[in-house]
Amino acid sequence: MAKRIFHLGAVVLATLGAGCAQTPKPRSTMPAMNVGLSTTERTCLARAMYFEARRNSEDGMLAVGTVVQNRLRSGRYGSSYCDVVGQKGQFAPGVLTRPMQGEAAERAGRVADQIASGRRHPAVRNAMFFHTAGLRFPYPNMRYVLIAGGNAFYEKRSVISLATAAENARSRAIALAYAKTDGLGAGRPIMLASLTRNVAMEDTSRRR
């Protein structure tokens, strides 16, 4: 799997160093529509999962599919699965044109059906971004929630307090540690509830 800075299709650009891709310019501000699973839509969703997740990892495919669904629901990335997956520079090169084959293609189709029927990866939550697991970036607003299928999934959370900064940094450290043991692509949620409480209490005490 080629390493990409922003794994949603952006190839590593030397001129950007280790930067993470900017949020793309929305293609549509229309509310996300309720997508019926036509053959074309099913194929677009399956392709994103097939080319972006380790093909032996259904958990990883489900996580990628949940990101696609989150982007569709947001209304900022198009009004169909094909709109979302086809956005320039967001998913793997050739995601809508390269051939799929074998058992992995069948698995991606099954998971696409499940996504369209309402199944989601619970650990992805509202995340709309991911990149190749094990890569490190300096951006303080990256809050990691899951390692699955060779990818690190994250939300963008503004740093508005010491608690938020510490939580984001800790999630990055855990994501990097999990990536080293993600050989089979099994999902590993990143849970930080206890850290959030402890840092919030520390932050409050310092302001007294």
From TrEMBL:
<dbReference type="GO" id="GO:0016787">
    <property type="term" value="F:hydrolase activity"/>
</dbReference>
<dbReference type="Pfam" id="PF07486">
    <property type="entry name" value="Hydrolase_2"/>
</dbReference>
<dbReference type="InterPro" id="IPR011105">
    <property type="entry name" value="Cell_wall_hydrolase_SleB"/>
</dbReference>
<feature type="domain" description="Cell wall hydrolase SleB">
    <location>
        <begin position="57"/>
        <end position="139"/>
    </location>
</feature>
<dbReference type="InterPro" id="IPR042047">
    <property type="entry name" value="SleB_dom1"/>
</dbReference>
<protein>
    <recommendedName>
        <fullName>Cell wall hydrolase SleB domain-containing protein</fullName>
    </recommendedName>
</protein>
